[in-house]
Amino acid sequence: MFAQAETATGAGSGKDVPDEVKYLGGLTQIRYVFVFPEEKDLVIAGPAEPWHVVDDQHAVGKRSGRPVMRLEDLVVAMRTVRAIGPGVFGCALDPDPNSLKAAEDVMIRLAVRSRAERMQEMTKAMGPQKVRIFGTAPDTRFAFACVAADYELKRYALGLANSPLPNLGNGQDSSRTAANKWWFCLAYDAILVAPDGNGYGLRGPRLGVKAGGFDFDPRGATEKATAFAKRMSQNIDALAAAQPLFSDLQNLADLTVVAALIDRDRLDRKAGWNTSWLFDEKSCPVTKVPVPRTAETIANYTNGSIAAGGVVIAPARTLTDTPREKDEKGVLAGPREQAGKLRQADKEGKAFVQAPPTTRPIVP
Asked: What is the C-alpha to C-alpha distance for residues 197 and 174, in angstroms, rounded to an integer?
């Protein structure tokens, strides 16, 4: 895969990247990873479809409307995973330490005013929240997607977003002014592994939501905040189907887990190719994308509840903590056979080969 991407990008030669490579063949999710050691190939496969380019930072499938994956996001995932090792990366929307006190003062001072007036005054009193990006490059589409999904999560938590689910509710405590933080994390079911170790099946919701104090401590959350986080986690697939910001983050989750699999299980060595060019900015430049440094504080208009947000992704830890299930029933055999046939059909040495509507592998 990366060997052909290197050729396609011209390894820093300034050549235009073909759209088929740039958008990873229209992949909207990664479900399988296969290594063919003798052929020195690696295949990443999942649902794929024709895509529509919305703008420089967004492309969506024409059938599902889901964001499609991008080569640059995969490159950033590979670099991030190598840089952080067993650590974490992500973003945080940090309120001013005095924001809760400011909210309480406004609620007392404007107790008889309209809800709209209180909300406006509260936002002004608390000022903007700082956007903090950690563990990954702060100026990529990858980082931008994390921040965008995080901010939308805050809106859901305070009941200010139009939810597609009638019973999702929100995380605000109407009895008092409260401060909570909600954040996305990785959430995968047991990873299916072929008996020979050369095939993997990714399963599960990809993302979960947690609630806690402003320092990412679950012990600091109110009961209602925790219950809301649980409902978000239970319904993440339905929410992602309706909100592209969440499905985009699901894509990044898949890319980081695959990057961690490549790194941890040395799949690049199994496939017999050198990916050192990937980690060289000159050989493989990534488009710089402006990422906001501040975000408008969101205060619920009823009681002054404050929502902080975050995305905390720990790929290596996820692989350690997520069970591996041996594929005793041969579930991976069919997809692996299909991937093998597609490899054989790739007579012209393309980086990507056309597959049936539900699956498109990436083949080096």
From this structure: 52
Q: What is the pLDDT of residue 315?
A: 96
Is residue 356 domain-resident? no
Domain-embedded: residue 249: yes
Tell me which residue of 48, 311, 63 sits closest to 183, measured CA to CA: 311
CA dist., res. 192 & res. 90, Å (int): 26
Q: Which is it for strands 306-313 and 89-94: parallel, antiparallel or unpaired? A: antiparallel
Q: Which two tokens stand for residue 48?
A: 């794929």
- The range of the structural domain enclosing residue 237 comes to 2-345
Q: Is 38 among the domain residues?
A: yes
Residues 176-232: tens digit of each pLDDT: 555 678 999 999 999 999 999 999 999 999 999 999 876 788 887 888 889 999 999
State the pLDDT at residue 213.
75
How many structural domains comprise the chain?
1
Q: Are 250 and 240 in contact (CB under 8 A)?
A: yes
